[in-house]
Specification:
Layout: E1 47-49, H1 55-65, E2 68-72, H2 78-92, H3 96-100, E3 111-113, E4 128-132, H4 137-144, H5 149-177, H6 186-193, E5 201-208, E6 220-223, E7 229-234, E8 240-244, E9 248-251, E10 259-263, H7 265-270, E11 280-282, E12 290-297, E13 305-306, H8 310-313, E14 324-325, H9 326-336, H10 340-343
Parallel strand pairs: 1-2
Antiparallel strand pairs: 2-10, 3-4, 4-5, 5-12, 6-11, 7-10, 7-12, 8-9, 8-11, 13-14
The protein binds 2-oxoglutaric acid and fe (ii) ion.
Pathway: Plant hormone biosynthesis; gibberellin biosynthesis; Hormone biosynthesis
Cofactor: L-ascorbate
Domain Fe2OG dioxygenase: 198-299
Length: 351
């Protein structure tokens, strides 16, 4: 059989019958789907009802233990989740050439393409995505959906608005578990005064097509999200896994209507290392494709410095991370990837 060359378009992965070399990963035992045999209990991240009277404690514990949790009773309507999922399906079902009309430009974040973390890995990932970071998506929607343009833009705007509100609500609750409020974040006050938004959200639509050899492929390789927190809706198909030191890779089974929340690097910095930013990845499947919709709630614009919240660190310190602007942190992340937090860590923290 002729070997499939490296000239594979990510827009057509679902039609391939064989796994090309460039997409074949060499997994070690520790990378495998199953947790190490020492883990006897099948555990996963907690599901937290946001109406629970103990919600602050529950969120705080989940953030400390896992850096991730699931939320029920979050107030986002099922119909909005269904709408954004079906918009994603409609997009990814289009022929590759049409999807490429929305391709991200060389420099830009917005648009269609392979995962942004791809350059850090030798092998390619079995997924494609559409990133909606700014208003430029409207022009792309107009090109690919001239008839349904208004409807689809409306869904995205509504989703962004709802996610932003939910993210701020979660931030307040989680900070409450550390005994502080949003007003204790030095840069949040500054950005409010200067009139700009505290942080900006990016929507990433991910598609993981069916895969002929899922056990040798990777949908999205292990990473932490750079942002403050991520709210993820996954379609009714498992694939997301989070890493926990004692347990290995733990699958987060989808529960209809329940959303996943990840703590990102920025929250790890704010909490002065109290909350881990969760390492996670997505595996793929042989029979069913999978969609996930990530809302990545980012950092402050401009020259605002991010550093651990002084009230959390306390008067004697030590501060574990030096101050960085959001754009500087992103630049570091896209240079050294999983070493980015180490790169801004204070070597001999005193106070
Ligand atoms: O598809 C998933 O479950 C994970 C997506 C993700 O981690 C991301 O978009 O950053
Ligand atoms: Fe992620």
């Amino acid at each position: 059989m002729p070997s499939i060359t490296e000239d594979v378009s990510i827009g057509n992965l679902g039609s391939l019958q064989t796994l090309p070399d460039s997409f074949t990963w060499n997994f070690t035992a520790a990378d495998s789907l199953l947790p190490p045999s020492s883990a006897t209990v099948k555990e996963s991240i907690p599901v937290i009802n946001l109406s629970d009277p103990d919600v602050t404690t529950l969120l705080g514990n989940a953030c400390k233990t896992w850096g991730a949790f699931q939320i029920a009773n979050h107030g986002i309507s099922q119909s909005l989740l269904d709408d954004v999922e079906s918009l994603s399906k409609t997009f990814f079902d289009m022929p590759s050439e049409r999807k490429l009309e929305a391709a991200s430009s060389h420099k830009g974040v917005s648009g269609y393409g392979e995962p942004r973390i791809s350059p850090f890995f030798e092998k390619k990932m079995w997924s494609e995505g559409l990133t909606i970071a700014d208003g430029s998506y409207r022009n792309q929607f107009l090109t690919i959906w001239p008839r349904d343009y208004t409807k689809y833009c409306g869904i995205i705007e509504e989703y962004k608005g709802e996610m932003e509100n939910l993210a701020s609500r979660l931030l307040s609750c989680i900070l409450g578990s550390l005994g502080v409020t949003v007003d204790d974040i030095e840069w949040a006050q500054k950005t409010e005064k200067s009139g700009s938004k505290m942080s900006r959200g990016v929507i990433r639509l991910n598609h993981y097509p069916v895969c002929p050899e899922p056990e040798r492929a990777m949908g999205l390789a292990a990473h932490t999200d750079s942002c403050l927190l991520t709210i993820l809706h996954q379609s009714n198909m498992g694939g997301l896994q989070v890493f926990k030191e004692e347990s290995g890779w733990v699958t987060v089974e989808p529960i209809p209507g329940v959303l996943v929340v990840n703590i990102g690097d920025l929250f790890h910095i704010l909490s002065n290392g109290k909350f881990p930013s969760v390492v996670h990845r997505a595996r793929v499947n042989q029979t069913k494709s999978r969609i996930s919709i990530a809302y990545l709630w980012g950092g402050p614009a401009g020259d605002v410095k991010i550093s651990p919240i002084s009230k959390i660190v306390g008067p004697v310190g030590p501060y574990l991370y030096r101050p960085v602007t959001w754009s500087e942190y992103l630049r570091i992340k896209f240079e050294v990837f999983d070493k980015a937090l180490d790169a801004i860590r204070v070597v001999n923290p005193t106070n």
